[in-house]
Specification:
Strand content: 15-25%
Shape: globular
Number of domains: 1
Order of helices and strands: HHHHEEEEEEHHH
Distance between the termini: 26 Å
Number of helices: 7
Strand order of the largest sheet: 1-2-3-4-5-6
Number of strands: 6
Structural class: alpha+beta
Radius of gyration: 16 Å
Largest sheet: 6 strands, antiparallel
Amino acid sequence: MKASEFVEGLKKIKIDAGPLKKRGLSDQFIEDFKRAYYAPPTGSNCVSPHPVVELVENYDCSSLEIGMVTFDEKIEETEDYLFFGKADEHDLAIDITTGAVVMVESGFDDILFNCAQNDARFLAAILNIGVFLLRRVFEAGLSENDELNIQMAEEFGDIAGGEKYYDFYKMMLGV
């Protein structure tokens, strides 16, 4: 998935404020919630073989938050990684050698989770998990259905590249 396709996919996600207001959530909370699924263009025209790099460089990701995944304001490159975001307070990065997306313990080089075969697959999986997480907000009992959440985590893992990535998506769904 390209960065532009990811952003277009986000635009197609509609968040109905009505049910959120009925739960007593403030207008500010609802606006922040909607903004978490929005990444407007910055006017930059970075071209990269990595869709995540294009996303971070060409779109304002400062409010973008899908589950526990957030994106940095800029890419940080080291000898081994292109750091682009966070998940559960740890760093998300592209392994420069393999192209895989990994979750690295903040401040260290220890890989905590393999997230995707590459960053294009990562964006596709994250977009899909974002849609499912919204369903969990609006559909009663969905969050507590461990069997379904495990099945969905495995589907997102398959989008990301296969069984090797299941644990990351299970962690994202809390199962």
